[in-house]
């Protein structure tokens, strides 16, 4: 018998954090304590959350594997499933199919300087890796985080942003698209701010996630800044149903974002002629 | 020792089907008006063997719609605002047999196998419980191109038994252990003496299939043409994105998953879906990586002739020709592939115009 990959674990919501007017973070535990205890994953892997009767959608596991009291998912209210998840309360049941996909190649990042470039809810997968690196701080060099949101109200993880801003071993650069900058927050789109900050490519890995249009220009600008295409890492999204490389939606040629990704290097994307 | 070859005289065929129906949920090609479709067998079934069925019997093993599991929502006694969820799995499938499918349809299962067998318990359990008794194709039908995709009218891949129709009866050849079990039946005569006649029939049928491209070796797709937006835009100018090609195909396997619910119970359902539909890849944000029909058709052809072979080795098409016969704008995938192949002549632009005409 093979394990049935379509049947979710049942999980209970223990805590809900309202991040922004459209984003909530859910902390859940699997109902079966032995399954929760045995649950293993890597930073960057994703899961499918179910609301029974509505359906499933894919979200990154937003808590790092170094903190295993709960599994965290940040959900932006956008479609049917995300709206249904937003209507749930503490104590309500969810289905969880996880972990799915690959993960950030954190072993090969050891000893390197790290630049994170995130936009909006795109900070969610980066946060997993940031916390993982901070929990293994000695393994990594200086960390720079460039994070943009539309407005002040659209920042996720405000508590952590405050904490990262105060740390000496993290450089945090915040920006808003337009309208309401205020010290120490800049004004400008993320790719532009990336150019202004102009991180040095030597011994550095750049990791980016955000809306497709932001990723597109961030990748271009990183190349212009001299980053090698193997040192540029992104994590992609697509419409997914199965999460195991079968349903046919998320492929880039013979590669599947759900199964072979969601984490890819620019070198991989270029070799597959993939344009964001 | 179990028998490798059997023979059933013409007047014994119906009794053979009736005896199979006692052991299996039996599916046979039946005439429904002018259309041939695979249907559950019953004594009055109007079985039609003289032309291929309109749609592949893929659904016997990979149903057009199936329940993955059901769920029940129960109010908690201690807090009626909260519900417990209970999940229930589906029961095991019954012994099933498909009779008189063509080798292209049986090969369809052998193309689905490496994708599904090791990861999908629904496909796997039905596949293991199903016996495939294939009828060697006596005559090619318009649009058929099996010999261009490394198959043939007597291809055994995917089959448990290969049946060849002869003047006086049917020659049965066991392909697998399951097939030998079928031949282990007192009503089936020893068929060793009919082998030569059957092979003659098979070879004659093979020679009648029109070659669409490549001289028998695996078709090589030109990377330049595959990546040419112009090629795909020209090729698909008339495509209606109706999806008929994908629903009739023995090797298409994209699906959707949806929930259906009444008050306190429901089911999670898997249904066939089509990469030809614009909303197939539409994301909640509005972003859609395949908005154009050119991108979608490239995905369909690319999947069968480039991406699937990269993953599993073989081509992902069995050459049944249904997508050609039933296309409302007469798109011919065999012509498109011929133009895409490295052996295709002329410029990419010429190739696109050739594929459309």
CATH topology of the largest domain in chain A: Rossmann fold
How are strands sequenced across the largest beta sheet of chain A?
10-9-8-7-11-12-15
Radius of gyration of chain B: 23 Å
Helix/strand class of chain A:
alpha/beta
Strand content of chain A: 25-35%
Supply Rg of chain A: 18 Å
In N-to-C order, the SSE pattern of chain A is: EEHEEEHEEHEHEEHEHEEEEH
Number of H- or I-type helical stretches of chain B: 12
The biggest beta sheet of chain B is recorded as: 8 strands, mixed
What's the end-to-end separation of chain B, in Å?
A: 56 Å
Outline the biggest β-sheet of chain A: 7 strands, mixed
> Helix fraction of chain B?
25-40%
Round the mean pLDDT of chain B to the nearest integer and report it: 91
Contiguous uncertain segments of 5+ residues of chain B: none
| Number of distinct beta strands of chain B | 12
User: For this structure, what is the CATH homologous superfamily of the largest domain in chain A?
Assistant: Nucleotide-binding domain of ferredoxin-NADP reductase (FNR) module
Could you say which overall geometry of chain B the principal axes of the C-alpha atoms support? Answer: flat
Largest interface: A-B, 41 and 50 residues
User: Count of DSSP E strands of chain A?
Assistant: 15
Averaged pLDDT of chain A, please?
94
């Amino acid at each position: 018998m093979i394990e049935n990959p379509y049947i979710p674990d049942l999980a209970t919501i223990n805590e809900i954090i309202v991040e922004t007017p459209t984003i909530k973070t859910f902390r859940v535990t699997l109902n079966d304590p032995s399954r929760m205890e045995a649950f293993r994953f890597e930073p960057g892997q994703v899961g499918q959350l179910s609301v029974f009767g509505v359906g499933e959608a894919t979200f990154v596991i937003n808590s790092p594997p170094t903190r295993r009291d709960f599994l965290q998912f940040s959900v932006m209210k956008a479609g049917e499933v995300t709206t249904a998840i937003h209507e749930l309360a503490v104590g309500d049941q969810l289905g969880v199919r996880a972990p799915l996909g690959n993960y950030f190649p954190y072993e090969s990042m050891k000893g390197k300087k790290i630049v994170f470039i995130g936009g909006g809810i795109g900070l969610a997968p980066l946060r997993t890796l940031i916390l993982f690196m901070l929990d293994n701080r000695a393994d990594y060099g200086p960390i720079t985080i460039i994070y943009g949101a539309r407005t002040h109200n659209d920042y996720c993880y405000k508590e952590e942003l405050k904490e990262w801003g105060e740390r000496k071993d993290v450089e945090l650069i915040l920006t808003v698209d337009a309208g309401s900058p205020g010290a120490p927050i800049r004004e400008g789109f993320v790719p532009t701010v990336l150019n202004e900050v102009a991180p040095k490519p030597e011994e550095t890995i750049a990791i980016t996630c955000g809306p497709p249009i932001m990723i597109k220009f961030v990748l271009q600008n990183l190349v212009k800044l001299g980053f090698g295409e193997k040192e540029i890492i992104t994590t992609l999204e697509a419409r997914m149903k199965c999460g195991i490389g079968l349903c046919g939606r998320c492929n880039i040629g013979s590669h599947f974002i759900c199964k072979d990704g969601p984490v890819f290097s620019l070198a991989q994307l270029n070799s597959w002629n993939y344009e964001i | 020792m179990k028998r490798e070859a059997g023979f059933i005289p013409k007047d014994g065929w119906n009794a053979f089907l009736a005896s199979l129906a006692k052991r299996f949920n039996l599916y046979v090609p039946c005439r429904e008006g002018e259309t041939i479709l695979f249907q559950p067998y019953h004594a009055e079934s109007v079985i039609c063997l003289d032309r291929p069925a309109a749609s592949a019997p893929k659904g016997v093993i990979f149903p057009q719609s199936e329940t993955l599991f059901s769920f029940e929502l129960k109010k908690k006694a201690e807090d009626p605002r909260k519900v417990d969820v209970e999940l229930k799995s589906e029961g095991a499938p019954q012994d099933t047999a498909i009779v008189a499918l063509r080798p292209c349809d049986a090969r369809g299962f052998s193309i689905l196998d490496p994708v599904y067998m090791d990861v999908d318990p629904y496909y796997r359990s039905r596949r293991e419980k199903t016996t495939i008794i294939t009828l060697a194709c006596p005559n090619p039908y318009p649009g058929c191109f099996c010999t261009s995709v490394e198959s043939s009218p007597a291809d055994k891949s995917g089959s448990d038994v290969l049946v060849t129709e002869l003047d006086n009866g049917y020659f049965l050849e066991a392909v697998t252990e399951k097939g030998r079990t079928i031949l282990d039946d007192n009503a089936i005569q020893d068929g060793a003496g009919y082998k030569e006649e059957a092979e003659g029939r098979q070879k004659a049928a093979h020679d009648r299939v029109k070659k669409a491209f490549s001289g028998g070796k695996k078709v090589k797709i030109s990377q330049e043409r595959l990546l040419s937006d112009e090629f795909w835009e020209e090729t698909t100018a008339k495509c209606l994105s109706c999806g008929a090609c994908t629903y009739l195909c023995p090797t298409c396997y994209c699906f959707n998953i949806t929930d259906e619910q009444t008050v306190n119970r429901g089911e999670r359902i898997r249904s066939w879906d089509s990469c030809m539909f614009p909303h197939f890849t539409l994301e909640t944000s509005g972003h859609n990586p395949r908005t154009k029909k050119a991108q979608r058709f490239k995905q369909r052809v690319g999947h069968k002739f480039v991406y699937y072979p990269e993953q599993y080795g073989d081509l992902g098409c069995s050459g049944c020709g249904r997508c050609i016969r039933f296309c409302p704008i007469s798109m011919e995938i065999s012509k498109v592939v011929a133009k895409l192949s490295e052996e295709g002549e002329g410029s990419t632009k010429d190739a696109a115009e050739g594929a459309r005409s």
